Amino acid sequence: MDPGRSDPGVQGFTTLDLYSVAAAGGTPDLTREPDLVGVQPTVPPDGRTVCNGGGDLYRRNIDGSDPVQLTLTPTVLENGPDFSPDGRRLLFHAGVTPVDGQNA
């Protein structure tokens, strides 16, 4: 974990890295590219990928490789992603972020 790094896309946090650790415990492993924000990860029923929010939504392999940006909405904060039981749909919260001190 790098406490000196900052993710400017999410205010109030200095680091928002996405890590994985064995369910039995152990040393956490960084599972994402350092410039992507990792907030509220969720795994679909098949267990092959992980999706996270914290700005835009991203999906990547469970080991953190091959990130794919699912949304591109600069003034909308998308978070709380969750998969449907069959893994075919992704639900999430979205809120408009202030632009230049104004509500967009």
Describe this structure as you would to a colleague:
The protein is mainly β and 104 residues long. It has one domain (19-96). The protein has no helices and 8 strands. It has a 4-stranded antiparallel sheet, with no helix packed on it. It has a two-stranded antiparallel sheet with strand order 1-2. A two-stranded antiparallel sheet has the order 7-8. The protein starts with 18 loop residues before the first strand and ends in an 8-residue tail after the last strand. The model is unreliable at 1-11 (pLDDT under 50).
Q: Per the principal axes of the C-alpha atoms, what is the gross shape?
A: globular
**SS summary, helix count:** 0
Number of domains: 1
Topology pattern, helix = H, strand = E = EEEEEEEE
Ranges with pLDDT <50 over ≥5 residues? 1-11
Q: For the residues shown, what is the average pLDDT?
A: 75
Fraction of helical residues: under 10%
What structural class results from the helix and strand content?
mainly beta
Ends: how far apart? 34 Å
Q: For the largest sheet, list the strands in their spatial order.
A: 3-4-5-6
Instruction: Tell me the fraction of residues in β-strands, as a range.
Output: 25-35%
Oligomer: single chain
Radius of gyration: 14 Å
Tell how many strands the DSSP assignment holds: 8
